[in-house]
Write a structure and sequence with these properties.
The chain is built from 4 helices and 10 strands; from the N terminus they run H-E-H-E-E-E-E-H-H-E-E-E-E-E. With about 190 residues, it is an alpha+beta fold. Strand 3 (about 60-65) and strand 4 (about 70-75) form a beta hairpin. The N and C termini lie far apart (about 40 Å).
Length: about 190
Amino acid sequence: MGIQSINNIRANLGLGGARPNQFQVILTPPPGLVTVGAVALVKVPFLVQASSIPINQVDVAKVPYFGRSIYLKGDRPAFAPWTITVINDEDFLIRDYLESWLNNLNTMIGNTLNFASSDPSTYKASAILQQISQTGIPIREYFMDGLLITNVSPMVLNWEDNNKVETFEATFVMDDFQVFGPTGVAGTGGN
């Protein structure tokens, strides 16, 4: 059988392929905002419509020599921003929670931190992005730690947008992330 046989793809895709629409996001709030968003965060796994698995990369150190270069292992760069797309319900609970988080990081009027402490652990959060199998079982988890919200996108309103539900994006930066596979053992990532 040649490599182009359909049986080869069947044999190598024995679990049916991971699906990009089988995921959920679980957001753990910063300790300073727990009571403010308890109800909103319950809705997050159901109303986060889109996300992405964080990029995992290592920079290189380039060493030029007589017109040629070799590449050596470099450091990890800062982790790229992570964005989620949220379906907005008429209660605006998730958007209100995320805007409250932003406003408490730096109040619009006073230009000050509105948390009980300037310790970053009081205003940073964590999140889990779960990839779920076709049978409904989590098969991979991305645990993002030191999560800090940086913006909540605008929502465009338009009289011509019939039969649509509002969505908006929220963007975060993170200190670290870890990957846990089907066995629950830490894999690649920021560990």
